[in-house]
Amino acid sequence: MNRSLADVGGAALIVSQFTLAAETKGNRPGFSTAAPPEEGKRLYETFSANVAALGIPVANGIFGADMRVELANDGPVTIWLDTASG
Q1: What is the DSSP string of 40-69?
Q2: What's the pTM?
Q3: Whole-number average pLDDT of the chain
Q4: Is the CATH number of domain 5-85 3.50.80.10?
């Protein structure tokens, strides 16, 4: 946890996932807090470009596509970063 992707010679697979913005109150999830598709795509592409600019190899999913992604989570930690709450 003390080393970055650059430190370990890692790579990033960056896949958009608007469902992380789901509001889960009620019977069905809502996505009104997710960015509109055009803005989401711009943010996704900007983030990917910024990671690549750090010299980190980047592979991308297809924005808005139905994709099946498998991963092996190496480590016991998942951290939610809520930038809105400061």
Answers
A1: HHHHHHHHHHHHHHTT--EEE--TT-----
A2: 0.71
A3: 83
A4: yes
